[in-house]
Specification:
The protein is of the alpha/beta class. The protein is built from eleven helices and eleven strands.
């Protein structure tokens, strides 16, 4: 949990602690995983209320850590307003718009170069087959968590013939703007959990690339569209292109969900 020292400090100061809408997933390595489970149990035991925002975290705490007092709640992003469709017009020739939200590298993302190449290949496919307008945009832009870095790498790998079909958002914007961009797209491919949540909320078909052992899958399972989730370890261009074809084919079904 990020900010774990703040929780411990609150306990030392004898403050009431509420842990709200978190994602808490296991650690891959056995020894670290064992220590993590014990640490999590001790920290959560003193909290007044503990809520998590996805099924995987709920099952992990309840059945693996053995912490029974956790509750399943919705992600706070669902409190944002639903944005009317076509709020943003990206260009005079928008056509079929596909928003792609990559994720900045973190150590658990093995074969990151393969991921970048996979996104590049998918962009080429979307432009060639569907003449799609690609919207590359970010969720996080911080010193050690900057999604504009993979965006720039992806864009640099695209040949000049395809770049005219790509719009890149690298400038600062707030969550409301982020929500509007998602709502204005016809399909979202997201490696960010909030991107998946906002797509579902705005009834935009979404393909989630799950980089964190079930974090994104947990959100997608809540609305029974897990066939549009790709596990990080199995990700390759062919699988991603098949998911794209399926999502486009079933667009009406997904929007109704």
């Amino acid at each position: 949990i990020k900010g774990i020292y703040q929780i411990i400090l609150a306990y030392l100061l004898k403050k009431n602690v509420i842990i709200y809408a978190q994602t808490i997933l296991p650690v891959r390595k056995k020894l670290l995983g064992f220590l993590f489970k014990k640490t999590i149990y001790l920290i959560l035991s003193n909290a007044k209320i503990v809520t998590v925002r996805d099924v995987h975290s709920f099952n992990f705490l309840r059945h693996i850590v053995g912490f029974k007092r956790c509750l399943l709640t919705v992600d706070p992003c669902y409190l944002l307003r639903v944005v009317p469709k076509c709020k943003i017009r990206f260009s005079s020739e928008d056509g079929f718009k596909v928003g792609i939200i990559p994720r900045a590298y973190i150590p658990s993302m093995r074969n990151y170069e393969k991921y970048i190449k996979c996104i590049v290949e998918c962009i080429r496919y979307l432009i060639e087959r569907y003449n799609a307008r690609i919207i590359l945009f970010f969720q996080a832009k911080f010193k050690r968590d900057d999604d504009t870095e993979p965006i720039n790498r992806i864009f640099s790998c695209i040949s000049s013939a395809y770049k005219k079909n790509i719009i890149v958002f690298n400038d600062e914007y707030n969550l409301e703007k982020y929500n509007e961009i998602i709502s204005s797209c016809d399909l979202i491919i997201s490696t960010r959990a909030i991107g998946v949540v906002l797509s579902i909320m705005n009834k935009v078909p979404v393909i989630g690339i799950d980089y964190a052992q079930g974090k994104i899958e947990g959100f997608i399972k809540l609305v029974n569209i897990e066939q549009y989730c790709i596990n990080w370890d199995t990700l390759n261009p062919d699988i991603l292109k098949k998911k794209v074809d399926l999502a486009i084919k079933n667009n009406v079904y997904l929007v109704k969900k």
